Amino acid sequence: MPMITNLKNDLMPLHYIFCNYSILVMDSDKLALPDDEVVQKCFEHQVVIDWFGEPEYQYTAIALEDDCPAPKGCKWVPIRSLFVKANAGNTEVSRAARAHSLLKWRKKKRYCPKCGTLMLDDERETARLCPKCKSKLYPSVTPAMIVLIEKGDEILLARHVERNNDIFTCLAGFIEAGESAEEAVRREIHEEVGIEVENIRYITSQAWPFPDQLMLAFKASYKSGEIVLQEDEIEEAHWFKKNDLPAIPKEGSVAWSLITGEI
Ligand SMILES: [Zn+2]
C-alpha cells in the first residue's frame, strides 16, 4: 500500500503524533488520540519535521521537532507506556508501533545508499524510491530473541550492566546473520551466562518499535554448566524461585509475561 504525503487537507481519522520517544494523547487511559484541530496547529506552527498517511489503515503519522511542548489539552506519554496488558491485541497500539517505526525508517532512508540522491516515497507501495538510479528500499524489521531459562521451579534472571540495571530480566539479544532464532538463543545464553540449555520452545512474538525490532520469545530448559558471567554485559545472574522474584520489567513487556508465567 502507498504512503500518502501530499494531502495535508485529507487527514485520516487516527493521528499518531510523536516527539522523541513519546506519543501525543488527549487522555492516556483511553488512548484518546489528538483531534484534527491539534494536527492543524502542529502544521501551522511549523513544528512538523515529517509526516505521512496510510489510507488503508486510516492513520496519519506525524513527527515533531525534538523537545516540542505538548499543545494545549494534550500531553506526551512514553510510547512504551502503550505496551501494557490492557492494550494487548489493541489494533490502534499496533498501528502506533507501525507509524513510529516507519517515521524512524523514513528519517534513516532520506538519501539513496547507492548514489546519494534524495529518496522519494514510492507511489504504489510502502517503499522509498531513488528518482535517479531507481533503487527501492523497503521498511526493515530487526529480529531479536528473548529467552526464559527454567530449572525445576526456578528461573534464571540477570541484571545488565548498562540498560535497565535496576531490574532483573530474561536474557535477550539480536539474531545474527546466518543464524536461526534457536541458534541465537543457544549462543546468547552461552555467551552471557556460560550454561547449556535444551528443549528450546518458541512461545510468542512482540513488535518492539524502538525502532524496528521483532522480539521472538522463547523458553528453554537448563541442561548443564555453572553460571559464568560475560562481565561487560551482565552485572549478576541468579536462579530465582518463581514465587520469590526480584524487581522485574513492567507489565506489558514480553519479558514480564515470560517471567510471571502469563505465557
Ligand atoms: Zn540512487
Tell me briefly what this model is.
Helices cover 18% and strands 33% of the residues.
How would you sum up this structure, described in words?
The chain folds into 2 domains: 14-108, no CATH class; 142-260, Nucleoside Triphosphate Pyrophosphohydrolase. The two termini are 33 Å apart. The radius of gyration is 21 Å and the shape is globular. The strands form 3 sheets. Strands 9, 10, 11, 12, 13 and 14 form a 6-stranded mixed β-sheet that branches. The protein is built from 4 helices and 14 strands. A hairpin with a 2-residue loop joins strand 1 and strand 2 (22-25). The protein has 263 residues and is an alpha+beta fold. The longest helix has 18 residues, at 91-108. The structure holds zinc ion. Zinc ion binds next to loops.
Superfamily at the CATH H level of the largest domain?
Nucleoside Triphosphate Pyrophosphohydrolase
Strand content: 25-35%
- The CATH topology of the largest domain turns out to be Nucleoside Triphosphate Pyrophosphohydrolase
The bound ligands are:
zinc ion
Return the average pLDDT rounded to an integer: 91
Radius of gyration: 21 Å
**What is the name of the CATH class of the largest domain?**
Alpha Beta
| Overall helicity | 10-25%
| Number of helices, counting only DSSP H or I runs of 4 residues or more | 4
Instruction: State the separation between the terminal residues, measured CA to CA.
Output: 33 Å
| Structural class designation | alpha+beta
For this entry, what is the oligomeric state of its chains? single chain
Please provide the ordered H/E string of secondary-structure elements.
EEHEEEHEEEEEEHEEEH
CATH architecture of the largest domain: Alpha-Beta Complex
Main sheet overview: 6 strands, mixed
Number of domains: 2
Give the number of DSSP strands: 14
Would you identify the regions where 5 or more consecutive residues have pLDDT less than 50? none
